[in-house]
Amino acid sequence: MSATVNAAVGHRWLVVPDDPALEPDRELVGGKAWSLWRMRSLGLRVPPAFVVTTEACAAYFAGGGLPAGLVEELEAGIRLLEAELGRTFGGGDRPLLVSVRSGAAVSMPGMMDTILDLGCTDEVERALAAETGDPAFAAEVHRRFTGFYGRLVLGCTEELEDLPDTAAVRAALLADTGARIPADPWEQLREAVAAVFASSRSRRATAYRRHYGIRDDLGTAVTVQAMVFGNLDDDSGTGVLFTRNPLTGTKEPYGEYLERGQGEDVVSGRVTPKPLTHLASRAPAVHAELLRAAECLDTEGRDAQDIEFTVQRGELYLLQSRPAKRTARAAVRIAVALVDEGAIDPAEAVRRVTAEQVRTLLRPELAAGAADSAELLASGAAASPGVATGLAVATPEEAQRTPGSVLVRRSTSPDDVHGMIAAAAVVTEQGGATSHAAVVSRALDTPCVVGCGAGTVEALVGREVTVDATGGRVYAGALPTSAVTEAADDDLRRLCEWADALAPVRVVADGAEAVEPVFDAGAVPPDELGEALPAIPPGTRTVRGALFTTTDGVRAAVDAGVEVIVAENRLPVLLAAVAHGGGAR
Fold it and tell me: Which CATH number fits domain 3-226: 3.30.230.10, 1.10.760.10, 3.30.1490.20, 3.40.30.10?
């Protein structure tokens, strides 16, 4: 919905994205709320929600607190959810609980906070137990909420996940923070919204934006959504589905399902879910409905989608759909496949693949037979392919201090992102292919192996290891690798042909004829040249050298009017030239 629609319903800071005919402004409502509108407009089942806008976030930081009028609008939004569902926030025979979820305009998976089961109190726990006939479920919801709120709003640093009940969590919170969770659900809501706003400037979110060149002033919207419970009974669960394989790009459903779980259980990596085939065997009708929704979203979005879903008592609810984070290999395969499917044209395919992704794809791979006599130290699920050798370290801070190291963790969380960015590879004891470690590593194109089992940290840390994340194995020592070439890959060859027609310069392979005069920057590695690029002499028509395989070097050549760049691998240079612009030759 637009700001005009906001005014029409009397809200300055709040949008209710439920009208299929009125597309919300993504900059205003964030990607998560926009995806809820899109799914609802396609006739898919989505729990009702409203969203506090990014403008409210900006006002929060400008004024040092929730902006005037937002408290009243939050109440109005909750009343809309109550009316639609016939439930009551904070009490009643049929209590309403909500999730409070971050949602930036640019997707930043796991970088900001989400609080589930908000609105839970002692009274609500009793009502929930009576409604469901399951006091244990109600107690578990209360315990989970207490932990979420204590960690994300009160700032508790103690481990709370394994504590047995709400009383134990409350005691730990009080001991660590000196604070108690408000008994008033409206106060819970206000404080949770403020905490989600604040998380947009957390260390992890800032590091992620810096790494990807995302503007630092985007802030976040806050989506407040009615809870559905994947942990309700044996006919309930939660999962993540990718419409195409995010490792290889193959057009096939890829994902995981966790019976009697909530979404946080899957992404945290603390629990290893089962393959989607488990859902198919347990609830074939639900699985078929999920695949139909996935096909619809993939087609409508003209891209691979990452879909979060919950099943409550045998009924499917979609919580989010967004373009899937993917490996470099998958990015190339998906872009070419979408051209073959008629969804996009070759020019769009070229724009969807970056030079850095192709450079990553052309990194060396484990040499044939190299692992035959190597000592296998650990094995797990291949979450993000690639090969890396380095010293295994146990903390993100050590990874930052040790270039080329391998970060080994029990499981990763958003607080580990700065170390994941610095590491050459990531290995975890817990988690599956849709865990935090897996999703973030794919986004970073960092080799990653997850679910290697208890004791992996102790077995690896302090040793030089080679991570073969394509095969899901970790070996002792440094193993030999072999080079990869773009000529041997049909997808890369086709992208190269399309990029060649769009690039403002010609790119030729080493040994090909070049036009005079030629400027040769030599074979000095680009990272040893410093920040200043050497001046390209006026009138130069051809350049060569390691410098001109980098994005900055390509831009400098294009800006200088160079006609030909000589490079060992043509495609990364062509893609960098197309991205820089200047028009086709």
Answer: 3.30.1490.20
